Amino acid sequence: MTRTTTMRNFESQGLSATRISRLLRPLRTKCSALTTHPCHARYRASTYGSKACSADASTCPLDILPPPDTIRSYHLDHRSAASLRAAIYAVRDCFRDIVLKTKSIEAIASASRVTRLADLCSIIVGQNLQGEGEDFGGDAEGDVEQLSDMENLYEFIPVQYRRSALLAHALDIILRCPNHFTLLNIILDVSLQCDLYLESCLLLRRLLEVAVSPAPFAVALCHPAHSNYLVDLFQKWRANRPTSVLIRILTETLVKAARPELWCCKALSKFSRQLHNQDFESLLDMAGKVVSSIPHVERDWLYENAKRKRRPYGREEFSLTDQLNRWMNYSPICPPNSQDSARLEFLEKCRQSRVHKNTDSLAATITCWATHYLSVPTQSPDIHTSISRLLQDVSPTVTTYNLLVESSFGTKHKLEDSRRLLQTYSACLQAENLLLLDASLSACVLRFVETMYFAGHCGARKEVILYREELMDSVEHAESRCFGRRLNRPEPRWRWEETPGCWHPVYIQDPAFATLHTTTTFDALHDEGMKTDNPHYDDSPTSSFELSFKSLVSSALSNRTRLHGRTVSKQAFSIKNSTRFPPHRVVSTLLSPTCTNFDIPTSDDALDLFQYPGSSPISCLD
């Protein structure tokens, strides 16, 4: 039998234009009845802090109504709700009949398919066959004329592609009805069972849009009764379709919704944990898509606030970056090799979007990840350069490397292994000239050893003490590399007085002291043995009040205990003659002497360089 004869038999027994019209007629009737049904009942608002919701389905916006033939419906629902359920499930039955009655025909025509592109074209044609505003429920003559025109359009579609066009047309008719959550759920179940990929994706997107849309008083997905909704949807979708499709559609829907409360709801939190346990790469894929969309999210939030004439969300504006940080902290800093590609791709997206500059917590996690991969010798040069550029944009704090240090001092790690691993991180940072990050890493290690690790390893006290002394030297070396003396420094305009422990402008100093040194440079770290010929250097105050104050402070300083047990050299600076006007302050980007709102330093270690603005006089003059 030739192919032409097969197609003719297929057309005569299969999807002719007249048969397509007969299949669509009951679906149009049921959809018209559902559209004219009375409006759905409004749900009352409910929050996490409010009274617990009752078990009635009317209080849960994402509950699925049971079929009309169940026993539960006759006892719990009113008559209006029963008629609504009957109309919804009647539409489902019509769509399922169309799918099943055309499935065998599709199996016959599968051998004559040309390309997938042709199927896509037929779907697009089917989605646009139903004109805008066509309800097929008005004038009888008008309905007959419209049906005749539609049959003529189907005649122009090749026979082997009519099923794709028919299913797309039927689904378009259903989606023109009110988007009831139960209707979308049961139609999605039919599409998944019958292996309708494109129809399933379209229904999933519409279903999530309804879930994240604002209810009368709150977002439906944020309802406390639906904390497991995304987990259940993920399990149902994963059985038939790839996870990446669900992740992409969910992320796009959440970003488009522009609702900050969605990112901290229980449903998304449980879903992210479930995704981490089963497919961490998909979780990183979701986080990467969110990172790329952060600028659009912030713009949409500002637009929504301005349109609704309300104040900004305040702390909720940072809920997106906080959620990203929680997702990243689900996994250890040193992951298995199978996660390397997904993590590196995520770090590259962070570098491009500069998301690590928004919050300190997210920046710390990204920095720990990047530092770990910077020390991996098997990375390609391009990846190594990208990670180095990412770390150059990080402004370290006193807690930047806490996660990396805690991971290095794991319960299964020996002290020598942890020491060797941290030295590798430090060497890599120094090789890339990331001196501030190296100083922050050394400071975090020293603080961890002095507080947590020292208390838990009393048996190896001697080794810990030796390692602590080694860390103190390492911190001082890192401090000198970042904040030490440099050549050709500008002339200082502020003088650090060690006895009172504060800054003084140069132009108000003692004239006898001001005229002694007239050089234009200064020595940042003066040798302790150097003495000045001026007898008023240490003992001549500018007033009797200053003398009394310095005496009291000197008495207090004489009784203090030095933690490092070594002599700290004095700092002396050369200054110019006094000027008429106060000099301009040169303020560092890291530390500033003008900052006054800080705590009193508890020690003289390197942690103060990052935590206390007034602890490093040299850095303030850079």
Shape: elongated
**Gyration radius from CA atoms, angstroms:** 36 Å
The strand order across the widest sheet is 1-2
Q: What count of helical segments does DSSP give?
A: 26
Helicity, as a percent range: 55-70%
Topology, number of strands: 2
Mean pLDDT: 71
Order of helices and strands: HHHHHHHHHHHHHHHHHHHHHHEEHHHH
Which spans of ≥5 residues are poorly predicted at pLDDT below 50? 1-13, 40-58, 108-114, 311-317, 509-547, 567-607, 612-622
Describe the overall structure.
- With 622 residues, the protein is mainly alpha-helical.
- Among the domains are: 1-42 and 56-212, no CATH class; 341-483, no CATH class.
- Helices cover 57% and strands 1% of the residues.
- The chain is built from 26 helices and two strands.
- The protein has helices at residues 3-13, 17-35, 71-76, 79-101, 103-109, 116-127, 140-155, 162-175, 181-193, 197-212, 229-238, 243-257, 266-278, 280-308, 319-329, 340-353, 360-374, 381-392, 402-408, 415-431, 435-456, 461-483, 511-514, 536-539, 544-558, 608-611, and strands at residues 494-497, 502-505.
- A two-stranded antiparallel ribbon has the order 1-2.
- Strand 1 and strand 2 form a beta hairpin.
- Helix 9 (181-193) runs antiparallel to helix 10 and helix 16 (340-353) packs across helix 18.
- The chain is elongated, with a radius of gyration of 36 Å.
- The N and C termini lie far apart (90 Å).
- The relative contact order is 0.05.
